[in-house]
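Quick one: structure tokens for this chain, please?
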Amino acid sequence: MARRFETSLRSTTLVIVLVNLCPLAGFVGLEWTFYEAMFVYWIDIGLIIAFYNVLLVFGQQPSRVADKAGRMHAGMIPFPKREGSLSIFDHFPPIRYRNLRLLPLNLVLTLGFWSLTSRLFLEYTNPAVSLPAQPEVRAVFSAVRMAYSPGGLSVAIVLFVVHAAVISREFFGGCQYERFSAAMLAEFSGRASAFWFVALIVGTFLTTIPRLTGNVLFTQATVFVVGVGGKAAVDVALLRIGRGQTDGCFTKWFVPYEPAPPDETEPTDAEPTDAT
């Protein structure tokens, strides 16, 4: 049984790695520019972050809203106050109303961090784009517009569908929703967006001199290592955590904070029970 599990994990990991290599086919075979290929990665990262946020509504364990230490998500809004759950599809777990309190702020925060990485993927790789130190929204949209192509967007959507299918199979097929609370699931996207913020800082530092001196090849190679290598590493780390494999420093950093079981005086967001 263990050997079969390891083989399945290796096979799924291979699929994730191959999916991450697909945009390079457009760069090599379809004559895309390098920043057009990076556009595909950038869009896929944003869609996957949003998808992980959606999955948190299915978490079946109660969240420890009183615990702050170690938390890496945006927190809860005070509504909906309704308790209970909603079953939409027979083959999916119920959506807990309590989990919806975590979705809005976390979605805005994580996608906000993701949008900042447009500098790494779209500006630094395109010699024709030069954004100010504090880019205006119009300037960022200009970089996105230059990198956009219908073919690139189509490939990004296809990659997202494949990647989301793999994540869904692991999450629903492996009953991961029974092990995690919504707060713990929110940390997947929260820690991923934090990683990309750090990657932006590292990429900016490593490419400052090459960009100033016009060394486009070195700049693009650095962005490829930091961006594409980082994306594959994050994808595999989250896959391994879902399977319960948390060895390795990089993977351990993505493990969601799990507070100690509450005592009778510590509140949770669990559904109320009848008093006796």
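Strands lie at 85-86, 95-96.
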